[in-house]
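User: Continuing from earlier, I have the next pair ready.

Assistant: Great, send them over.

User: Here they are, in order.

Assistant: Folding the first of the pair now:
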Amino acid sequence: MSKKNKTERESLEFYLNLKYPVTLYPDPDGGYVAEIKDLPGCMTQGETTDETLFNIEEARSLWIETAYEYGDEIPLPSTQVQYSGKVLLRIPRSLHERLTENAEKEGVSLNQYLVFLLSERNAVKSLRMANVK
């Protein structure tokens, strides 16, 4: 009885049906360039946006089919990446002490306090960036 060392992968059709974000930008020499950053080296160009978007879909399909044929890893679209919500963070002992003391004063766990601080800072930064535009 032998076990498979390699995990089963999805069908080719599964990968071909995934929706990858496309970056489209003007080419300095004229026309447009499109790139799928999740698929390294998957890029194309065209004279119009419609032509370029058509070309990138063809390039995406060829990229996936080739990777599948050779057994290469096919990354999932960055829009489908799942995050665990866990972060391991090393900080100075003195900062750890101050944060723990502040959390105790607020009557919450250190974890809850850190989530509050990070969320608050992220919201402030988002508001500043929105006002800049």
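And the other member of the pair:
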Amino acid sequence: MFSRSAARAAQPLKKHVRRYATEAGGAGGNSTLLFVAGAAGLAGAGAWYFSRSPAAVAEVKKVVVAEPKKAFIGGEQGWLSLKVSEVETINHNTKRVRFELPESDQVSGLPVTSAILTKFKAEGAEKATLRPYTPTSDEDEQGFVDLVVKKYPDGPMSSHIHTLVPGQTLDIKGPLPKYEWSANKHEHVALVAGGSGITPMYQLLRGIFKNPDDKTKVTLIFGNVTEEDIILKNKFDELENTYPQRFRAFYVLDKPPANWAGNSGFITKDLLKTVLPEPKSDNIKVFVCGPPGLMNAISGNKVSPKDQGELTGALKELGYAPEQVFKF
């Protein structure tokens, strides 16, 4: 029924099948039957495919290549009232709040280096409070989006988010594009962050290292008050251990513990000169994000979301050009 020459021709396929088998199989007729069944199945599938109308075939292709539905599509899309599903206390002033997307199979749809906008109106207030945040959850995660929020005493939105409990909602919309990123856009990027300014840096890091085609080198300098304030450190440790030739992290504490082995005080020009890629290096970019004091000292504050403002501070003194620096 099945010639010896055909059986010999099927041998490579037999080895391929056994490589993925969950049970050990003999070298007898079972593999031959599997080959015959597979060939028959392929033939049947081919016959079905080519006998369909062009419209039916196009519909099959559409199903195969369909992208996940995006929750945030920008443009004329209105505010989404998203329900809180989880609240995790990270430290004395920081919480991770998880919001359910409208549909369980949706993804956020946010491009790398973009944010979302939050809104709430306090009782008796004339205007609503609006604040941008960068999610810390992966853009491809289905069904939810996470915000890691540090509470500031004079921050109306951060204080409000810290009061939220599961079941309550917050109005959110997006995306808010920040910097147009593509794989290998720069050979080496430096991330200078303070406090909650780490979230857009983490988003960029995640986008770089989850893309196998992106070979960008990254240096992170992260300043905080105490060791407890270093949020997402376990994520940075994991990246540093996984990509030791491409990622380095340096931490600076204003109030370090007695056994602290990192840098103390503030992020200084001398530290930046030591760890950043030199301004004369080819194709580099320095990203900066943090409270106003840090921005003033490192790069100068931006004027508005569309106006980066003048480059000042330590980066200018070290010889970096305005086009080499981006202020989140």
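Worth noting for the second one:
DSSP finds ten helices and twelve strands in the chain. Residues 1-50 have pLDDT under 50 and may be disordered.
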